[in-house]
Amino acid sequence: MNSITKAPANITVGPLPGSRKVYVEGPMGVPVPFREVALEPSSGEPPIRLYDTSGPYTDPSFVHAIDKGLPALREPWIMARGDTESYVGRQVKPEDNGNASGDYLAPTFPVTRQPRRAKAGGNVTQMHYARKGIITPEMEFVAIRENLLRQQAREHVDRLRARDGVPHDAVIPDDITADWVRQEVACGRAIIPANINHLELEPMAIGRNFLVKINANIGNSAVTSGIAEEVEKLVWSIRWGGDTVMDLSTGRNIHNIREWILRNSPVPIGTVPVYQALEKVGGIAEDLTWDIFRDTLIEQCEQGVDYFTIHAGVRLPYIPMTVDRVTGIVSRGGSIMAKWCLAHHKENFLYTHFADICEIMKAYDVSFSLGDGLRPGAGADANDRAQFAELETLGELTKVAWDQDVQVMIEGPGHVPMHKVQANMIKQREHCGDAPFYTLGPLVTDIAPGYDHITSGIGAAMIGWFGTAMLCYVTPKEHLGLPDREDVRVGVVTYKIAAHAADLAKGHPAARLRDDALSRARFEFRWMDQFNLSLDPEKAQEFHDATLPKEAHKTAHFCSMCGPKFCSMKITQDIRNEFGGDAQKGDAQKGMSDMSEKFREQGSEIYRPSAAE
Amino acid sequence: MNSITKAPANITVGPLPGSRKVYVEGPMGVPVPFREVALEPSSGEPPIRLYDTSGPYTDPSFVHAIDKGLPALREPWIMARGDTESYVGRQVKPEDNGNASGDYLAPTFPVTRQPRRAKAGGNVTQMHYARKGIITPEMEFVAIRENLLRQQAREHVDRLRARDGVPHDAVIPDDITADWVRQEVACGRAIIPANINHLELEPMAIGRNFLVKINANIGNSAVTSGIAEEVEKLVWSIRWGGDTVMDLSTGRNIHNIREWILRNSPVPIGTVPVYQALEKVGGIAEDLTWDIFRDTLIEQCEQGVDYFTIHAGVRLPYIPMTVDRVTGIVSRGGSIMAKWCLAHHKENFLYTHFADICEIMKAYDVSFSLGDGLRPGAGADANDRAQFAELETLGELTKVAWDQDVQVMIEGPGHVPMHKVQANMIKQREHCGDAPFYTLGPLVTDIAPGYDHITSGIGAAMIGWFGTAMLCYVTPKEHLGLPDREDVRVGVVTYKIAAHAADLAKGHPAARLRDDALSRARFEFRWMDQFNLSLDPEKAQEFHDATLPKEAHKTAHFCSMCGPKFCSMKITQDIRNEFGGDAQKGDAQKGMSDMSEKFREQGSEIYRPSAAE
């Protein structure tokens, strides 16, 4: 395959319908981006600013060139800290790209930059700074990003009711400051995945007391690949709301394509390093060694990967616990390590070398995503001994990482029926302290291949409410094939629904702002506002126009489903107008109360003589 | 519009992929239908029989003619009871069809049949029989239909684990008998919607202790209509698993189109009679009268409608409680009655005439679906005074209906954030005793028009688990437009997911059978079995083939997502083969335990000297 010719011509740029990019002055003059949705003047409402993951791509004033990448936003912050050094990085080897050559070798990213690392013996993790009481620009950026919504909610306060929700173990303040973010990172309850070599990053936080985040997976495979194709998948994912993106590439050109992705990514990029390591040994799990793995970690640390999924909890003694399972081990990384363990009759080298891995990660500030290699792949296997034994080990490893101030989140399942979902959150807290939980779904039933974004969206919304900090999306193609662009969009929007539903249920102080604004628009037949405030404005308008295409209908005071005579909202408004509308709500209230008063005097037996009519 | 020319040529018939229709001898020789999925011989597993809502349409030996309708399955049962009489029915009037004429008048159904009703003073409801200790063929049919799955589960018992679930207030027996069904109906905890004039019906039950059911809405509107079009929507809905169908038609030809639907429907048909009544008074709510409504009830009872949504709980004194709402009254029927009440300054005539309505319904055995006319249309309005005041009244009316042995279910919301979902189920039980709950969603957020099958599927799965007996589907077009055939399919499958997830979580004894069988197929790379056992076999295979079209890949021992080297399930199987596969599980267990034993002796410190590798 030739990655270049296979690539689509363009990367998607430009704002979403009805939205414009706005910036709020941030740390060291760095602007913090938001997406502002203007409402129709008839609404008498101010514009609504939304959390914006889409990066510069949705700013018309930004001219994107895929071979130049994004601005090095964080460079001044990192230089100012003065605790890192640039050095001659590791040489890229043919095996880093699966020995692809000639037409088959994806080109290297044209702009080269020397990697940086902590000065000898240093530690440059956000957790390290936080524990030393240092508020970083990254923390300030996050604070502004998450708090503006709250300030806005207060401006809308007249329209908002009291805070309302069941937060479970979350403690969500009315206002957050950079120092509060620092405290959350210091105690390990939140992470800010931010490799010092990922200068293009717009920092974000993952933690129970922040907005629930979602991850989208991309990546080329043995079957298909392409630079612009992968970058477009990234841009497309964040356009719809992806907070982080994992590059799960296998096959050739892993190194080069990842470089193009990182240089063009404003969101944290995660990887599963063992995938590349396995490619380097020709796919033979038994041939993996610590040295090859270690070399792969350095390679990816230097490129700027922000978090690594590492399956260090798949311990030798746990593997027999999977023998009776319906679907055994379904994690790729988990099965690779299990095979290695059994072939060598040795403990997992990721476990035995865990402290060595921490040493590497703290020099670049790469966060752990401790992989759940023994997660259930079927409802029948949910919450079994193998799964929870591994979870206990992940808790043990969390403390090891925290001893070196390395940031950690914990991966969770998988396939779990509804009645077993909450136990996963409870046990994760029990064993892993406050380390953020990051789950894949879970899927609440196994019988709907082709609709697993939905089977998993149900479990994701529930576990998000219970306290999961980030939800890894599942697309409709799960179990069946490789997602295309449309699958990615559906997966991301489905997970934005789950994450937002969780924020609402937890009682996040600003979450309702958007729901209420959209519902008011719906009630007042402000169709364009309804479209523009929705998670997928294009889809919403497309569906509306399928039934009522005419422009006139965008202002029609009825829904196409019912037609004018049957539109409940129109009738309700008629009622309010006839019997005292919003304008004279007081009168309406009184008028109606008088009536019901009169009614009560007449007594309220169940039957009246039909003559009463 | 000319309904005939607009109609599609064909009604969808024929079995689903990999399935065949089988029948189990039922009451009075009437066969109870199931869908049997045969598995690949390599599985060594018996075929799996699934609950089948699709009616004769999926039986290749049945030749369907839309103008003849379905066989009169229940005729001998009803005649045998000898408590009904046929009579000259009400004359069809021009206004029954919105005064459509000429080309615009949909043709009448060619086969005419005199309606039947209870002999003077009689009562022919399933509840009436149940309370007299009579087991009807309808109850027997339901018992076989719901119990066969359990018998099957027992045959698979070696593969099944112990029952597992959190049933909340459900009491789900290991086995059910016709007499148990009778008891559930007698106490009002379940209903069997079965109008004596709907002879084509394959009886089903709606109740907390039965499988969770789903309803699909169809119906023509002012904008579009067509006989074959509506019948095809019905057939399409039940093909994917719709348990009941509501005809929400408005506009012209309501009477004639409903006749074609009923004569071709093996599932209960529900309606909202006030829609047709409103058409009869030209859409002017104030002009509605008890006489017009009563006449409409008789009209629909004679045709065989199985349940009526009646908004008798929208009482005059509750209407002022909606004035402060974000979206006021969003139920069509609710807003119509509210407008009538205010216009006349009188109590809702459906409330004052409720006992009269019961008198009519018990003569045909039409079940109540007590409408929640004041349900919330936005998360902000969820669980408010208006909603719960109406719910209390529905509880009061339930007792009135039960006094006359009329079957009742209660409609519920709507738009409800996750943390307020369970309160709806609890209050419904508190006020309405054990009458089955029938909810629309609920939607857990308002910000995703275009994806409201998902926002509502999340709430539906949860409330189904908590005890809701039937879930009314929502399609992707909700709030935006009229669902097309594909929307109906997506809506139904989404709700089958929600209902099945609820059955799993409640611990239904047979629910896991299908999940486990599909998961085993997945693990053993029996692709066709995986497709055929899924809720939408065509979609599953279509998605698979999009990536790996070749026939060979249907037997490929890897997933297209990962390719052979990265397929965790393949690796797990290699492990089992190398270290003792399923065949010698004992050995495997032992072999692996020995290893982990050895490992423990070595001690399990977190770090080992790297030399250990």
UniProtKB/TrEMBL annotation, chains A, B:
<dbReference type="GO" id="GO:0008270">
    <property type="term" value="F:zinc ion binding"/>
</dbReference>
<feature type="binding site">
    <location>
        <position position="311"/>
    </location>
    <ligand>
        <name>substrate</name>
    </ligand>
</feature>
<dbReference type="Pfam" id="PF01964">
    <property type="entry name" value="ThiC_Rad_SAM"/>
</dbReference>
<keyword id="KW-0408">Iron</keyword>
<protein>
    <recommendedName>
        <fullName>Phosphomethylpyrimidine synthase</fullName>
        <ecNumber>4.1.99.17</ecNumber>
    </recommendedName>
</protein>
<feature type="binding site">
    <location>
        <position position="562"/>
    </location>
    <ligand>
        <name>[4Fe-4S] cluster</name>
    </ligand>
</feature>
<comment type="subunit">
    <text>Homodimer.</text>
</comment>
<feature type="binding site">
    <location>
        <position position="415"/>
    </location>
    <ligand>
        <name>Zn(2+)</name>
    </ligand>
</feature>
<keyword id="KW-0862">Zinc</keyword>
<dbReference type="InterPro" id="IPR002817">
    <property type="entry name" value="ThiC/BzaA/B"/>
</dbReference>
<feature type="region of interest" description="Disordered">
    <location>
        <begin position="578"/>
        <end position="613"/>
    </location>
</feature>
<feature type="binding site">
    <location>
        <position position="217"/>
    </location>
    <ligand>
        <name>substrate</name>
    </ligand>
</feature>
<dbReference type="GO" id="GO:0009229">
    <property type="term" value="P:thiamine diphosphate biosynthetic process"/>
</dbReference>
<keyword id="KW-0456">Lyase</keyword>
<comment type="function">
    <text>Catalyzes the synthesis of the hydroxymethylpyrimidine phosphate (HMP-P) moiety of thiamine from aminoimidazole ribotide (AIR) in a radical S-adenosyl-L-methionine (SAM)-dependent reaction.</text>
</comment>
<comment type="similarity">
    <text>Belongs to the ThiC family.</text>
</comment>
<feature type="binding site">
    <location>
        <begin position="331"/>
        <end position="333"/>
    </location>
    <ligand>
        <name>substrate</name>
    </ligand>
</feature>
<comment type="pathway">
    <text>Cofactor biosynthesis; thiamine diphosphate biosynthesis.</text>
</comment>
<feature type="compositionally biased region" description="Basic and acidic residues">
    <location>
        <begin position="578"/>
        <end position="588"/>
    </location>
</feature>
<dbReference type="GO" id="GO:0070284">
    <property type="term" value="F:phosphomethylpyrimidine synthase activity"/>
</dbReference>
<dbReference type="InterPro" id="IPR038521">
    <property type="entry name" value="ThiC/Bza_core_dom"/>
</dbReference>
<feature type="binding site">
    <location>
        <position position="411"/>
    </location>
    <ligand>
        <name>substrate</name>
    </ligand>
</feature>
<feature type="binding site">
    <location>
        <position position="438"/>
    </location>
    <ligand>
        <name>substrate</name>
    </ligand>
</feature>
<keyword id="KW-0949">S-adenosyl-L-methionine</keyword>
<dbReference type="Pfam" id="PF13667">
    <property type="entry name" value="ThiC-associated"/>
</dbReference>
<feature type="binding site">
    <location>
        <begin position="372"/>
        <end position="375"/>
    </location>
    <ligand>
        <name>substrate</name>
    </ligand>
</feature>
<dbReference type="InterPro" id="IPR025747">
    <property type="entry name" value="ThiC-associated_dom"/>
</dbReference>
<dbReference type="GO" id="GO:0051539">
    <property type="term" value="F:4 iron, 4 sulfur cluster binding"/>
</dbReference>
<keyword id="KW-0411">Iron-sulfur</keyword>
<feature type="binding site">
    <location>
        <position position="559"/>
    </location>
    <ligand>
        <name>[4Fe-4S] cluster</name>
    </ligand>
</feature>
<keyword id="KW-0479">Metal-binding</keyword>
<dbReference type="GO" id="GO:0009228">
    <property type="term" value="P:thiamine biosynthetic process"/>
</dbReference>
<feature type="binding site">
    <location>
        <position position="246"/>
    </location>
    <ligand>
        <name>substrate</name>
    </ligand>
</feature>
<feature type="domain" description="ThiC-associated">
    <location>
        <begin position="15"/>
        <end position="85"/>
    </location>
</feature>
<dbReference type="InterPro" id="IPR037509">
    <property type="entry name" value="ThiC"/>
</dbReference>
<dbReference type="GO" id="GO:0005829">
    <property type="term" value="C:cytosol"/>
</dbReference>
<feature type="binding site">
    <location>
        <position position="275"/>
    </location>
    <ligand>
        <name>substrate</name>
    </ligand>
</feature>
<keyword id="KW-0004">4Fe-4S</keyword>
<keyword id="KW-0784">Thiamine biosynthesis</keyword>
<feature type="binding site">
    <location>
        <position position="567"/>
    </location>
    <ligand>
        <name>[4Fe-4S] cluster</name>
    </ligand>
</feature>
<feature type="binding site">
    <location>
        <position position="479"/>
    </location>
    <ligand>
        <name>Zn(2+)</name>
    </ligand>
</feature>
